[in-house]
Design goal:
By secondary structure, the protein is α/β, with parallel strands linked by helices. 35% of the residues lie in helices and 22% in strands.
């Protein structure tokens, strides 16, 4: 059994935020692989389907980003999923826009969604880091809120056209490589 988590915040206000790229990926995978409708369960929105005789769960925590670990722990425990079969899609400001990297374990790098998950299940799961870059003009934001305002702002039309849709499609079309841990093929 596999658990794929897309980090984000629930609600229409956040739909196109950089912080919601994880939700966007889960929705794209669900659409491409024709998962059933999402159900509300244990602080989550989830959909389950068998792929290659393996049960795959797509999860969007509904607890808001900073409490994502509650949702993840609930589903992990309920379905008895090992951390080695958990994959988390999230935004990464320290990667260039559209850059995608996979890592297992390590630091949360200040990402509050990952911090929350780490505190509930440990950090030995896979992270699919999708670059959203850093704000170019820091003067647009209050000094202490630069990062949070950036990730809670919407992708621009230019970003959507230049790289966002392409990245979402690349990840979802190569989903089986990810599930099978064939990471060398995943991003080709």
């Amino acid at each position: 059994m596999y658990l794929f988590i897309g980090l984000g915040n629930p609600g229409l206000k956040y739909v196109y935020n950089r912080h919601n790229i994880g939700y966007m990926i889960i929705d794209k995978i669900s659409e491409l692989y024709k998962f059933p409708n999402f159900l509300k369960k244990k602080n989550s929105s989830l959909s389950i389907k068998k792929i290659e005789n393996e049960k795959v769960i797509l999860l969007k925590p509904t607890t808001f980003m900073n409490l994502s670990g509650i949702s993840v722990q609930n589903i992990k425990s309920f379905y008895n999923i090992k951390n080695e079969n958990i994959f988390v899609f999230h935004d990464e400001i320290d990667l260039n826009p559209s850059e995608i990297k996979i890592k297992k374990g390590g630091s949360s790098n200040g990402h509050n969604g990952l911090k929350s998950i780490d505190s509930f299940i440990g950090n030995d799961y896979y992270r699919i880091r999708i670059g959203v870059g850093r704000p170019i003009d820091n003067s647009l934001y209050k000094k202490n809120d630069i990062v949070s305002n950036w990730v809670l702002s919407d992708f621009s039309k230019k970003e959507k056209e230049e790289w966002l849709e392409t990245s979402l499609n690349l990840i979802s079309e190569n989903f089986n490589f990810l599930k099978n841990k064939e990471f060398d093929f995943f991003l080709q």
